[in-house]
Known about the structure:
82% of the residues lie in helices and 0% in strands. The protein has helices spanning 3-10, 13-42, 47-72, 77-100, 106-134, 140-169, 171-190, 206-218, 221-251, 254-278, 286-292, 297-308, 312-344, 350-401, 403-406. Helix 3 (47-72) crosses helix 8 (206-218). The longest helix is centred in the last third of the chain and has 52 residues, at 350-401.
Amino acid sequence: MRLREYRAAVRNRGFVLMLVGRSVSWFGNALAPMAVVFAVLDLGLSVSAVSVAVLARSVPQLAFVLVGGALADRPKPRRLLVLGSMVAACSQACLALLLVHGVATLGMIAALSAVNGASAALAGPAAGSLFRALVAEGDWHASSVLDRSGQQLGLMLGMSTGGVLIGWAGSGVAIAVDAATFVVATVCYLFMRPPAEIASRAQPRLTSQLAQGFGFLRQRLWLIAVMLQSLMTSVTVACCLQVIAAVVADATFGRAGLGVASSLQTAGALVGLLLAGVVPAARRLPGPILLGGLVGLPVLVLGVGPALLGGPLALLLVYAVSMLIMGAATGIAGVWRNLFMLQNVDADMMGRVTSYSLVASVGGLSLGEALAGPLTSFLGTHGALILVFVVVALVALWAATRREVRAVVYTVPDPVRS
């Protein structure tokens, strides 16, 4: 990709404001869950109580995200971003005050986490709708790379600094930092000026919009395939690379090795985004789908590696390399899938399609965490890993070989000239 395409992207004031707002929000969102976990544990409560606090955020997000998608396709999606960020800032500020003063209870933490999850249900689809409206077609590729790079950097910095900040200043201060990131995001969104044509969008009844969104998805097998792979990716990460991988690590190369391998996944994602910025996008949808299927590679290594490789060190090396490859592959695939959606989804449907993507990804994480225990109980650790790998591979192969999926193309648009 030529440098002038990136220059054109960063000259887009509305896009840059949204990029900054979303990036700092991702930093806070990566930091906050760890702070909530330690806040609950500091109350002397059990791991089950931690699960209650975590689910308190994800359940409202899943419950309201489709409504958020329908609202995002109405004339003023920017208001949803502003409202969602303001609500998140207020809820996190309240939680920080309760924690700093030592008066928080599990019920308070869960209630404020629920408010935070509901605000995310509004902001996520609105961002997808606004991206489509703010960015010219010729700048989609460069802007998608910058957008995902900002999110990934925010996630990486939030996760890496979260533990240090919590250990140094406590969970309350960490949550206060999260609240501050939403304040910054709110200011960015307030200064955005979306294109005037958004105001001409239709505003039917909410129930009609929800029905239209479901009908749009149901009539497009390629979108269903993309959502199914997104679901399986989240299930795989949560079930295998977070929960079961910790069990394998304790029995083999240790927790420090697991941390190194996980950091290589993040590094791989950044490498993938850099490659996505210079490599031409795939012209047909099976390309990113097959790349996305490589999320199963480290799962296969954990499943068969202990029996086939010579010892813990060899297993760690192969697993770390597989995590690097997986991170790069999914980084590229994410950018490419976004380009296919931008070009093949109507502008006034982007909010609703984005909301279904969020249902798949957020719901997949919860589903993966719930499946880890039953799968290992029935199949054992290695049996569960091999089963998930087989399902991931079959989903990718099924999707990539469907005629309706192979027919979806991405035509490189002319870049915006300066």
